[in-house]
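Dear colleague,

Following up on Tuesday's group meeting, I ran the structure prediction for the two-component complex that the binding team flagged. I've pasted the input sequences exactly as they went in, so you can double-check that nothing got truncated or mislabelled along the way. The C-alpha cells for the whole assembly follow below. Feel free to forward this to whoever is handling the docking comparison.

Inputs:
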Amino acid sequence: AQSVTQLDSQVPVFEEAPVELRCNYSSSVSVYLFWYVQYPNQGLQLLLKYLSGSTLVKGINGFEAEFNKSQTSFHLRKPSVHISDTAEYFCAVSRTGTASKLTFGTGTRLQVTL
Amino acid sequence: GAGVSQSPSNKVTEKGKDVELRCDPISGHTALYWYRQSLGQGLEFLIYFQGNSAPDKSGLPSDRFSAERTGGSVSTLTIQRTQQEDSAVYLCASSSRGAGGRETQYFGPGTRLLVL
C-alpha cells in the first residue's frame, strides 16, 4: 500500500515570494508521483508528474517539483507566486506499470496575498 | 478535445433516496475511476474500470454503492438508500495508457451531492 503526507495544511505567502509545498510518500513498490491543483468549486487539474528520467520536472503555471528517492519526497516549488495561484494543492502517487488508483495526500491550501 | 464531463453538477436528495451520478470519460480512454472528496476523509478512491477487466471495487465504502460502465465508455455510480455521510463531491477521472504502461488521470468537474 502507498501513503502520502502533506504536512502543511495551509501555506500563506505574499505575492511574488517563492513557495515550497512539501510532500512525502511511503510505498513498498515503485510509484509515479503527481501534483494536482484544485480551484474553488472545480475538479482537479494536473500540474506536473514524475514517471521516470530526470528527477526535476516542470509543470504548468511555472511550477516545478523534484523527486528525491532517498528522502521519499516530491516537493512542489514556484520561485514567484501570483494571486491566481491561490488554490488547494494535492500530492498523489500511483503504482507503476499498470492502470492504478491514485492515493492522495490531505492537501495544502496555498493562500497568496498582496 | 472534450475533457471528462459529469452530471449533474449538483444534486440534493433526501435521506433514504437512491441517486445516480454519471461520468463521460475522454474519448478513447480505457480506464475510468471514481473518487470521493469529503471534508472528513479527503480524497478517497472508490472504484475503477480498466478495459474489459473486472472492476476494482476495493474502495467502495458499503454495499449501497455500485457502479457500472457500459460499452467501455460512460459510467454510472449509484448510491442506494443515501445517508447524510454520503454528502461529498464525487469525482470521475479517465486515463489512457501511454508508452511503457504509464498513465495520467484527467478529472471531471465533479458532482456535489448533498443528502438532507
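Chain B has a mean pLDDT of 91.

Cheers,
M.
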